[in-house]
Amino acid sequence: MTPTFIPGLELHAEQRSNYTVSLEVSEGILRTTIPAKGVQVKVTGNGESRLMVESSSLEALNELLADVSYTSTIYHIHTGDLATFQFEDHEAVFPITIKQPQPPVLYDMGKDINSQVTIITKTFLRYPELNALLKTIREFYKDIEIIIADDSIKPEKITGPHIQHFIMPQAKGWFAGRNLAVSQVTTKYFLWVDDDFLFTKLTKIEELVKVMEAVPELDVLGGKVGGDQFYFSLIYEEGDEVEGGCMYRKSRGKFHSLPGYPQCSVVSGVVNFFLARTDAVQRVGFDPKLKRVAHSEFFMDGLGSLMVATCGHVSVSHQARLKHKDTKLYKEFRYPPKSDVTSKLQLHFFKNHLKCILYG
Predict the structure, then answer these.
(1) Beta bridge partners of 145
(2) What is the spatial distance between Cα 176 and Cα 74, in angstroms, rounded to a whole number?
(3) Given this model, what pLDDT does residue 280 score?
(4) CB-CB contact of 116 with 109 (8 Å)
(5) What are the extents of the domains in the chain?
């Protein structure tokens, strides 16, 4: 609802005794400068949805066309209009985007990594693994903030400086825990790690931050886990309104290298070790209906809004599978029956209006 000039609007035509052009829109009004008296230019419809300009001088006509502005008359945060420009038997149609500008979300980056990144994780019945992870984090990042979402059946107390331990209802689920942890992050970035990872000298968070700061379009940047740089690409075909579209997930699929960083590639999804922009991930969120079997679904929900890449020069280690008193109970939740997978697919097909999913 703010006047905006239409750039590059002009007529190119051979010499004529008279030139008449019209410009028409449907969701707004058009205005141009009212010519001074004596100027051989006639303007009709100034301040209306159809503007007509007539002149015997092509130069004078183009001066007025260069001053044409569009103002939307209907408030909408993101929509558009089509403008039709006509001259004799010629017609050109071009789109106009109507969009409410978004104010920026700024974070105080401080002077060190502790002001820039929060480490978050979700745990369930794996306290030996979690404590081993925390020990290695503190070897390399003594004061970085750590947020733990915990839906264990019998929660144990996790204490220490710069640790936030949130107890959830028992077995609430994988994505619910991720939502809780992300909701408490106050830094620009967060680093997601699983509770059975181990930090090493190659787990250099600063290197991931460096890439994200250099490429502000990025929202998620993955690394390696135990030497494996898992990533995938997603191709979505919309389909029709009745049957829905198709989603194709290709393992090891990538689009191209990240400009300026040959060790990084643009992809659609990454492994469970990634640095992310907090506000971008909060906008997408994690579906709490997905309790046990989920990972790609977050990136599918974020397709079209999250820019994702993967890098091979930052990695984290993976713990050997430990046996402890909760191992059997953990496996019952970790490997649910086929009915859980069926329910996940039913939700997925409905929510994203799909008729097919292909994993390759």
Answers:
(1) 118
(2) 38
(3) 96
(4) yes
(5) 4-99, 113-323+350-359
Whole-number Cα distances in Å, 241 to 192, 292, 295, 353, 354: 36, 30, 27, 9, 10
d(CA 300, CA 269): 8
Closest CA relative to residue 214, chosen from 300, 104, 134, 309? 309
Nearest to 83 by CA among 64, 100, 99, 69: 69
- Report how far residue 10's alpha carbon sits from residue 65's, in angstroms, rounded to the nearest whole number: 6
329 in helix, strand or coil? helix
Terminal alpha carbon distance of the chain: 47
| pLDDT per residue as tens digits for the range 123-173 | 998 999 999 999 999 999 999 999 999 999 999 999 999 999 999 999 999
What is 113-323+350-359's CATH superfamily? Answer: Spore Coat Polysaccharide Biosynthesis Protein SpsA; Chain A (3.90.550.10)
Whole-model pTM: value is: 0.86
Amino acid at 206: E
Rg (CA), the chain: 28
Cβ neighbours for 57, distance < 8 A, ≥ 6 positions apart: 19, 40, 41
d(C-alpha 235, C-alpha 358), whole Å? 10
The Cα-based distances of 135 to 2, 46, 113, 190, 202 in angstroms read 56, 71, 18, 19, 16
Query: CA–CA separation, 28 vs 81, rounded Å?
Result: 8
93 three-state secondary structure = strand
The Cα–Cα gap between 57 and 66 comes to 14
Neighbours of 282 (CB within 10 A): 15
| Nearest residue to 171 via CA among 152, 146, 190 | 152
